Amino acid sequence: MRAALALFLFALLALGPAAAQEPEGLGTALQALAPEEGTSLRAELIPLFLVVTVLSLAPGLLMMVTCLPLMVIVFSFLRQAIGLQQAPPNMMITSLALFLTFFVMEPVFTTAWEVGIEPLRNGEITEVQAFDAVIVPFRSFMEARTHESTLMTLSEALPGRWDGVSDDVPLSLLVPSFMLSEIKTAFQIGFAVFLPFLVIDLVVASVLMAMGMMMVPPAVVSLPFKLAFFVLADGWTKIAAALLRGYAG
């Protein structure tokens, strides 16, 4: 995993800045990937295949070490609690979660660039050293958000991988513990989000039953009231701000 992530960083450095700074940068990078004289095509294709494979894993890597899963889950719970199936659509929810994730993770990204990627570009450190430096701010972010109970439960499931005492938690344990902790927190927030809308549904259902209108679906009648309540409370902004405050400090 370490070698793959180091290769991913090296690919971004080789292709990204060169193509952005000068028009011939992309052509130069592609020429660098071409096989040299005296080397076999198979030997040159293997690194290229690894680069493309790691780049395809970038979205998964983003979800593993950032707050994106929590954002997406909470917004999905919110949409379901309101009673809307396709508004806002999945693409809009994902886009909003991505930008909020960037807002939260920007200090981590900046630190990772300054301590790892920029020295690598300048030739001051190797790819492995760059990965070790880049992962430090992400490790600090994940450790601050990981529940101790989740970490210990996973550690006890496979004893011998971590002693449970040292501060150097292996990434193979820290990353899944962080993801499970974020999912748990997201479900807790989703439960709190559901409650006020559930109260509206129960009140509307009770009124309809008292009026003898048992054939009318309560969800259809309660939807306008839930929308009005959510709009008047400026719900999307309030929930987004609450999620951001959860990552403050």
UniProtKB/TrEMBL annotation:
Tell me which Pfam families the record gives.
FliP (PF00813)
Q: Which GO terms describe its biological process?
A: bacterial-type flagellum organization; protein secretion
Q: How does it sit in the membrane?
A: Multi-pass membrane protein
Q: Does the keyword Transport apply?
A: yes
Q: Which domain of life is it from?
A: Bacteria
Alphabetical keyword list: Bacterial flagellum, Bacterial flagellum biogenesis, Bacterial flagellum protein export, Cell membrane, Cell projection, Cilium, Flagellum, Membrane, Protein transport, Signal, Transmembrane, Transmembrane helix, Transport
Which PROSITE patterns does this one have?
A: FLIP_1
Q: Where is the signal peptide?
A: 1-20
Q: Which InterPro entries match?
A: FliP, T3SS_IM_P
State where the protein is found: Cell membrane; Bacterial flagellum basal body
Q: Which GO terms describe its cellular component?
A: bacterial-type flagellum basal body; plasma membrane
Q: Which residues cross the membrane?
A: 48-78, 90-113, 186-211, 223-244
Q: Family, per the entry? A: Belongs to the FliP/MopC/SpaP family.
Q: What does this protein do?
A: Plays a role in the flagellum-specific transport system.
Q: What is this protein called?
A: Flagellar biosynthetic protein FliP
- Per the UniProt record, the source organism is Parvularcula dongshanensis
Encoded by which gene? fliP
